[in-house]
Backbone:
């Protein structure tokens, strides 16, 4: 097969056989030329080209598909294809995977790409002291064996039907072996664009690489200038006045104004993005499940969808599996605002009143501060007094998230259930932003990962969603559509990716000027 979507992979299992990946489809309508100017939020002065640290839109967009490549890629249509890998095959138990690597690829400094680069690039994520969100993926590999310059074999601790999908993770970028530090400092990858200049938290300028392996299939701009515009109003104004060609995270309050402009197109897709209020369950008072349940029943989810998202989304149910996932459990009981139940669980916790800080910034998601204030108002009737602390946008992800007991956050979601759960809910992983521990959940996580029977897998993932919803420390009030905007002078293919914002954060390689 030349392409494979996640449903196909799970249906066919991973019986031994080659999954070829011929690359991206040709687009006859695409034309080469021009400099794309992006206005992006999610920029920080601590940004770097170290993929292990990428957590927000600016560097995710400038990382995979722009300056760097991954081994595999999920297309806009949701199909899994090769990027720096061209084919792969698995043993019948999905524990041993053999990947064939693309030949004739060079890094921006002229070094040839091969198996040594893969081994060192993956090893970065489990190195002593490394803080990588992809550590759960890489730590499952017990052995990486170089079979030849362009073939590598991975042995996993346990079978994983999703393994090729996981290698498309935007953290797992390929660096040149023996010069990783230099590559991070200068932005040396194998991507379509090489770095001209980079001022962290301000801007990044890149230029198209000549004679790239994706020539004729992707990479239509001569250059790209990504400008950090964290303020939503300033970002929308920059697009309306023609200072930039595309922006991410449209402020839904101004969306009608943008839509009325004939020179601007809104592009909106439904994916698995969810806005959250994670609490650290190993800190008081969130270590009490009754407190967590009281907080879950103290929030008006529909009000947030209506007022914060302006209808551009749907109600969430305190688990991270979204409507675009294969095993999304849409029929489990929906948690709704219920002051009597909130009071019941407050009493069970031995409380008549709860005073708690909720630390927020619109760096977490557009409208996070307003959402927290709505939460404050709805929970008050149950004796829950939420003190909304507004935090600075710059440094929010390093100073507040994973640090303070309760905060606002967002997740893009992931293409497969295991990918999402293992990134943010597996015991001990760096991005487990609730520190929630549940023995049954962890047992199911390991079991479902290797399960090739789709019916059994659905049952396992449904139970995991119920456990998160009923007992976890994550409040997921809403799933948010990706709403981005661009100049009408830009064009794209038939599909838009829904894994992340901005065409799955690959607009730089997939779009072109008309």
Residues:
């Amino acid at each position: 097969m030349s392409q494979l979507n996640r449903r196909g992979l799970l249906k066919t299992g991973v019986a031994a056989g080659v999954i070829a990946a011929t690359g991206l489809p040709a687009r006859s309508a695409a034309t080469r030329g021009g400099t794309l100017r992006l206005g992006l939020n999610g920029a920080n002065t601590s940004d770097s080209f170290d993929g292990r640290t990428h957590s927000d839109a600016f560097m995710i967009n400038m990382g995979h598909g722009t300056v760097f490549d991954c081994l595999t890629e999920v297309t806009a249509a949701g199909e899994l294809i090769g990027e720096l890998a061209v084919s792969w095959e698995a043993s019948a138990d999905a524990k041993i995977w053999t990947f064939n690597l693309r030949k004739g690829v060079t890094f921006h400094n002229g070094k040839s790409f091969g198996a040594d680069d893969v081994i060192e690039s993956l090893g970065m994520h489990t190195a002593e002291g490394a803080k990588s969100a992809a550590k759960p993926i890489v730590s499952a590999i017990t052995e990486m064996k170089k079979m030849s310059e362009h073939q590598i074999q991975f042995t996993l601790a346990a079978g994983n039907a999703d393994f090729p999908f996981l290698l498309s993770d935007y953290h797992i970028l390929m660096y040149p072996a023996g010069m990783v530090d230099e590559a991070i400092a200068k932005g040396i990858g194998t991507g379509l664009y090489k770095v001209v200049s980079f001022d962290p938290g301000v801007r990044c300028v890149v230029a198209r690489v000549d004679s790239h392996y994706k020539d004729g299939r992707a990479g239509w701009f001569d250059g790209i200038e990504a400008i950090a515009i964290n303020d939503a109003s300033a970002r929308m104004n920059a697009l309306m006045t023609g200072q930039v060609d595309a922006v991410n995270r449209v402020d839904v309050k101004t969306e009608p104004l943008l839509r009325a402009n004939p020179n601007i197109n809104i592009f909106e897709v439904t994916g698995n993005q969810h806005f959250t209020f994670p609490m650290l369950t190993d800190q008081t008072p969130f270590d009490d499940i009754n407190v967590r349940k009281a907080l879950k029943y103290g929030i008006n989810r529909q009000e947030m969808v209506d007022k914060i998202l302006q209808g551009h989304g749907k109600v969430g149910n305190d688990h991270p599996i979204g409507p675009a996932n294969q095993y999304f459990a849409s029929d489990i009981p929906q948690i709704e605002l219920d002051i009597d139940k909130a009071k019941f669980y407050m009493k069970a916790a031995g409380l008549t009143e709860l005073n708690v800080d909720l630390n927020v910034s619109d760096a977490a998601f557009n409208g996070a501060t307003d959402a927290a204030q709505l939460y404050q108002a709805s929970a008050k009737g149950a004796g829950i007094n939420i003190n909304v602390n507004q935090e600075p946008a710059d440094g929010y992800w390093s100073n507040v998230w994973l640090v303070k007991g309760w905060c606002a956050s967002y997740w893009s979601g992931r293409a497969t259930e295991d990918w999402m759960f293992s990134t943010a809910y597996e015991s001990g992983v760096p991005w487990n932003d609730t520190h929630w521990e549940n023995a049954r959940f962890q047992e199911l996580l390991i079991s479902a990962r290797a399960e090739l029977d789709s019916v059994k897998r659905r049952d396992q993932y449904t139970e995991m969603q119920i456990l998160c919803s009923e007992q976890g420390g994550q409040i997921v009030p809403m799933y948010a559509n990706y709403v981005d905007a661009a100049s009408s002078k830009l064009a794209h293919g038939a599909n838009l990716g829904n894994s992340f914002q901005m065409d799955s954060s690959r607009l730089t390689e997939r779009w072109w000027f008309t």
In short: DSSP finds 18 helices and 23 strands in the chain. Residues 1-28 have pLDDT under 50 and may be disordered. The longest strand covers residues 141-148. The two ends are 33 Å apart (CA to CA).
